[in-house]
Amino acid sequence: MAKKLPLSFFRRDVLEVAPDLLGKCLVRQFDDKTIERFKISEVEAYRGEEDKACHASKGRTKRTEVLYQNGGEIYVYLIYGMYWLLNIVTGSMGHPQAVLIRSIEGISGPGRIGKRLKLDKSFYGESAIGNRLWIEDLAQKPKYRTTPRIGVEYAKEWKEMPWRFIVQ
């Protein structure tokens, strides 16, 4: 039986955590107590205030506060007024970084993931080893490729960072 990842897994640099999340199992327990599992197949890393694609690039705000916490918390945010995107905070206190979950087995696109998992603002700041949402280790290390991140054209040279990790 797969085990929940420990908080120590997330309290590493985002560029270590992001590829290590590939092949892990994202687990969601819904309000009716049903549980569904999805293998993570694509992620993107966002690393610090210097990373112009990271929400923390504008500094500490009410929206980004969770990014400044110790790794292992959930950062969700709403885009287009309709999609909640799932990010897992990584690293150590005061160093904002997170991994965006872009695709899971059978669902491509972070907006679709949020909809399928029935995410909302109540997940903001929850533990990634909690009771509604967590990640399990399937003891798999799939091969992956890297590409520049997508959807961050405004970030100039930071958009070219090969911080998008995709299972091959």
Number of individual domains: 1
Helix/strand-derived category reads: mainly beta
Sheet-strand content, in percent, reads: 25-35%
Helix-strand sequence? EHHEEEEEEHEEE
Q: Please identify which CATH superfamily we are dealing with.
A: Methylpurine-DNA glycosylase (MPG)
Mean residue pLDDT? 96
Instruction: State the helicity in percent bands.
Output: 10-25%
User: What overall form do the CA principal axes indicate?
Assistant: globular
* Biggest beta sheet summary: 10 strands, antiparallel
CATH architecture: Roll
Radius of gyration (CA) equals: 15 Å
CATH topology: 3-methyladenine DNA Glycosylase, Chain A
Low-pLDDT segments: none
Annotation, overall tally of beta strands: 10
**How many angstroms does the end-to-end distance come to?**
25 Å
Briefly, what CATH class?
A: Alpha Beta
> What is the number of helices?
3
Quick synopsis:
With 168 residues, the chain is mainly beta. It is built from three helices and ten strands, in the order E-H-H-E-E-E-E-E-E-H-E-E-E.
Structure description:
By secondary structure, this protein is mainly β. The chain has a single domain (3-167), classed as Methylpurine-DNA glycosylase (MPG) (3-methyladenine DNA Glycosylase, Chain A, Roll), CATH 3.10.300. The chain has 3 helices and 10 strands; from the N terminus they run βααββββββαβββ. Strands 1, 2, 3, 4, 5, 6, 7, 8, 9 and 10 form a 10-stranded antiparallel β-sheet that branches. β2 and β3 (35-47) form a beta hairpin. The radius of gyration is 15 Å and the shape is globular. The mean pLDDT is 96.
